[in-house]
Backbone:
């Protein structure tokens, strides 16, 4: 037994290097042969083999380690490994779901462990992207997990936690929190691309701000175009369960059984993969930003009339580096929530390819 421990410690020391070391694997393999019940040795061997790129063997090692009894570190590692295995796999969503389940099991063993909550947040965020970046319940679950992770003092020095939490806030359009989070991540680790993420958000906000000022401030010509767009809106047949309203009648948050009609007058290009952004005006000539997930870039064009069903409304107001931004925003999470020129979209017009999270695994 003592020899097994010595072999394990030798292997563990050699495995501290970021790259794969054959000597580390040899010592750890000897350790588990001498004492198959040494769970820490199985865990370390799994990590070592992972570095080699043999993910299936790494999973087998971690599963054998888990057979020795419940262990939050092993469950977290297995959760991370399943996410790695999901990349490019045919059963991508299934592996990521397994990753989430392992993360939840780890939390049940220690609900105050920040690393376990952080791992769950990463699993939910990965799931959001793997399934096409439209199911915002996954983002909300991810954000809640990150918030719980932040309660653990030992996690406050982890720059990836701030980066990933900011990523979630970006996709939820909590721009102030996203900017603050990315800035905090950049201060803790300048090597992250957090500064670039801040700039992407600022570029988007500046673009929206400049466009709205252009249409609101430039005078008579713009006013005439807005009036023309608003007057060209036609009544679209809606299900009896929906009531047609203008944007000023929406409440903050989800607006069930309401429909807003608007004309697209500008596509706002952004540096993010999703969502797509458009500027619209309603029948009252009120301008607002539409962000929509799950729709192909060629589906909505300038001049189209959109009917927005069950819109999620936000009155955005924030300040960043002495600049103020204010605009009305509607978010749609599903392609079924929009009619284009009175017609529902088909599955072929939805985004069919998965996209990946720009976050640390």
Residues:
């Amino acid at each position: 037994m003592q020899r097994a421990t010595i072999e394990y410690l030798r292997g563990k020391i050699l495995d501290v290097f970021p790259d794969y070391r054959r000597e580390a694997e040899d010592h750890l393999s000897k350790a588990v042969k001498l004492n198959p019940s040494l769970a820490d040795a199985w865990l370390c061997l799994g990590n070592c083999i992972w570095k080699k790129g043999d993910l299936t063997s790494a999973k087998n090692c971690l599963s054998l380690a888990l057979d020795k009894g419940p262990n939050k570190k092993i469950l977290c590692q297995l959760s991370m490994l399943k996410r790695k295995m999901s990349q490019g796999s045919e059963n991508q969503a299934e592996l990521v779901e397994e990753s989430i389940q392992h993360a939840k099991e780890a939390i049940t063993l220690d609900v105050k462990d920040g690393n376990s909550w952080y791992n769950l947040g990463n699993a939910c965020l990965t799931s959001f992207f793997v399934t096409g970046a439209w199911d915002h319940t996954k983002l909300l679950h991810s954000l809640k997990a990150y918030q719980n992770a932040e309660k653990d003092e030992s996690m406050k020095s982890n720059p990836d936690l701030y980066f990933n939490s900011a990523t979630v806030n970006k996709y939820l359009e909590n721009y102030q929190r996203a900017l603050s989070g990315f800035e905090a991540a950049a201060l803790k680790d300048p090597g992250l691309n957090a500064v670039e993420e801040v700039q992407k958000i600022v570029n988007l906000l500046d673009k929206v701000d400049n466009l709205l000022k252009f249409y609101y401030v430039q005078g008579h010509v713009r006013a005439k175009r807005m009036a023309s767009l608003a007057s060209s809106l036609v009544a679209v047949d809606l299900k009896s369960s929906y009531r047609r309203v203008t944007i000023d009648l929406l409440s903050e948050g989800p607006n069930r059984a309401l429909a807003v009609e608007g004309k697209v007058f500008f596509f706002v290009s952004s540096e993010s993969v999703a969502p797509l952004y458009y500027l619209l005006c309603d029948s009252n000539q009120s301008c607002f930003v539409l962000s929509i997930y799950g729709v192909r870039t060629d589906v909505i064009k300038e001049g189209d009339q959109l009917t927005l069903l069950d819109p999620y409304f936000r009155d955005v107001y924030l300040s960043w580096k002495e600049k103020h931004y204010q605009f009305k925003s509607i978010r749609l999470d599903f392609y079924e929530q929009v009619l284009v020129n009175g017609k529902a979209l088909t599955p072929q017009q939805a985004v069919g390819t998965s996209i990946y999270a720009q976050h640390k695994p």
